[in-house]
Amino acid sequence: MNVPWPDDAVHKRLTDQRSQAYDKKLEKLRRAGPRSTTGWDEEIEKAYGRLQEPERGEDANSRLRVRRGNQPSAPGSSVAGPAHSTPSHWSKRSSPVSTVATHDQSISAGPSGPPPKRGRRSRPRISSTPTPSPRSAMTTPSILPRKGTIISLTPGSAGSSKEPEAAQSSLPAVIISQPTLRGRISSTWNKAAKEVMAATVRISPDISDENFPRDIRKFKYMEKGYVFRDDALQEIFNAARGVFTSCDCMTCSEASSCSCRDLSEIYDLKGKTNFSAYSESLFTFEIPRGVEVIECNKYCGCDNDCGNRVAQRPRKIGIEIFDTNRCGWGVRALDDISRGKVLGTYTGMLVRRDEVDELPEEHQGYLFDLDSTEVRNSVNLGEKYTVDSYECGNWTRFVNHSCSPNMEVYCVVYDTIPYVNMPYVAFVASINIPAGTELTIDYYPYAEIDKKGKRPANGGDCKCESEVCRGWFKI
Fold first, then answer.
1. Per-residue pLDDT at 204
2. Of 352, 346, 337, 350, whose CA–CA distance to 384 is shortest?
3. In what order do the strands lie in the sheet with 293-294?
4. Which of 139, 381, 397, 428 is the most exposed place for a label (fewest CB within 10 A)?
5. Contact 356, 385 (CB under 8 A)
């Protein structure tokens, strides 16, 4: 395909001129013959000499002079200077290139070696075997030290590792830190909490790796929900949609008009009005003992900001697991907590209560019976369940007992229906709790009812040190 140029004559003329100029250059190079390298060393020597000479008008006190390398000590000074002498021309203006070259040569020559000889700079030899130069050795040791040690970057001891000591050089030390067991586990737990939009959960730095129990190293952190010992339990928990009672409210501001709480047993003193368990997202503590709180479920028309969705919201209070030095590990809050603030729910593996005795002995101290609707000292119909948090659970696993607790628990239902006896156990602050205070519950809240607080046969020694301590708690 021929494409005509707008001005074909101009195009040909310019192309011919370029071709002629290129031919003239080639002819000139042929006549000149091969280029000679004679005198290159002398020219480089003269160029180095000019770089070492001071500029005109530059005095000895010029503030623009850049000095690199070691300075000679002043007369009478107690600070020792370098072991080798420094030529007088080094104190004059010098280029960065020549300074770096002489500095590298002085390192290789040693403190007692001769001063570097000025001469032609040549390209370094390339070898297949890596041989670090003195400069590269200051930052990349040939043999990596063990983690947790300090690498000195002093030129004379490049690549050597030593224990921490006073710095002998102005160059910084590089500390290679090794992740601790506490750090790895704390990071894993916090990541699991973040996946469900919960606040920080961490393990106190005061807990060393040596104090980590074996069960904690295999513990699986789960911020919300249950896991089930068998599929049959999960099928019971996952009730069909047809048996759920849901509402089509937008905000669920009035409990009496919300259809999802038609089954609720929360009434006023006259037994007529169905009222909410929450006020401005805080628990009201007006719920009779043994009554479950029914929150809006996944089939309701309201969103997560609904006033009847409180225990199911992500935790907003930061949590730290720490060593109490008297009761093992405990839990404290990283933020101030207002009375009525719901902090979370007890999680773990859901098991049948008649199978609890089959669990290993070490699990017995981490069981929570779902018995909120059971009537004491009477026959209770229906299946009974227990939550085991030995192998999996969340921060509530580490909450200690106190005879004067700052938290209470109540049962709440939203992922299933009330009749299956599988509620969640929610933890709520019963008083205003300052940040850094240990969070506790009463393991045996019925102690004042049972024989005026008489110690049971399976009671353990209480170490809560509160003013109203009973001296024991039920295991």
1. 95
2. 352
3. 293-294, 407-413, 424-429, 342-345
4. 381
5. no
Q: How far apart are CA 320 and CA 343, in angstroms?
A: 13
Average pLDDT of 318-342?
Answer: 95
Contact 116, 69 (CB under 8 A): no
Q: Does the predicted TM-score (pTM) go above 0.70?
A: no
Is beta strand 161-162 parallel, antiparallel or unpaired with respect to 150-151?
antiparallel
Give the H/E segment covering residue 385.
strand 385-388
For the chain, what percent of residues have pLDDT higher than 90?
A: 37
DSSP H or E segment with residue 23: helix 8-32
User: Quick one: which of 251, 290, 291 has its CA closest to 274?
Assistant: 291
Residue 466: the pLDDT is 84
**Which tokens go with 203?**
């393990």
pLDDT at 36: 63
pLDDT at 24: 82
> Rg for the chain (alpha carbons), in Å?
40
Task: Give residue 454's pLDDT.
Answer: 67
Q: Summarize pLDDT for 409-419 with one digit per residue, the tens.
A: 999 999 999 88
Listed in sequence order, the residues at least 6 apart from 64 whose beta carbon sits closer than 8 Å to its beta carbon are: none
Mean pLDDT across 320-336: 94
Dihedral through CA 62, CA 64, CA 68, CA 70, nearest 10? 30
Distance CA 93, CA 62 (A): 10
- DSSP code, position 153: -
Degrees to nearest 5, angle at CA 136 with 132 and 142: 50
Could you give the strand order of the β-sheet that contains 161-162, starting from the edge strand earlier in sequence? Answer: 161-162, 150-151, 174-175
pLDDT digits (tens, 9 = 90+) for 171-196: 556 565 677 899 999 999 999 999 99
The full DSSP string for 68-130 is: -SPPPPPTT-SS---SS---GGGGS---HHHHHHHHHHHHHH-TTSPPPPP----PPPP-SS-
Q: How far apart are the C-alpha atoms of 387 and 380, rounded to whole Å? A: 19
Helices within 229-297 (DSSP H only) = 231-237
- Contact (CB, 8 A) for 393 and 427: no
Q: Is 6's pLDDT higher than 60?
A: no
